[in-house]
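Changelog note: in this version the structure field was regenerated for every chain. One regenerated record is shown below for reference.
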Amino acid sequence: MADGGFGEYGLSQVRTAQQGGLAVGIVVYGYQIIPGDDEDLHFATTLEACMKDASDLLKDLRNDPEVSPTEFGARAVYECTLKMPDPATLVAFLNEHTEAIENCIMDRKLVTVVGN
């Protein structure tokens, strides 16, 4: 699979969701930035990269003396299937990112939790 010049973002590793042999979406992984908050997720192209990013965030928080221990909680990691955007959705995304997750995620399932 060609990465279209986006290999530096890990997009050469992106997998697609298949239905009847046709690509119907792109699978990415997202972890909770704030424990217990599913509204704000940080995304990566592989489960391994997502878990590493979540672990790195927890390490950084533990090393920061100004961060409350309540922020050290485990982060849920989700596998998210993003639908292929139609032109109207793509234009809306390009013009305003606030509803991107709501407009693009067609399926999400909990795959693991990263914690202590």
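Spot check on this record: The two ends are 36 Å apart (CA to CA). The longest helix spans residues 47-63.
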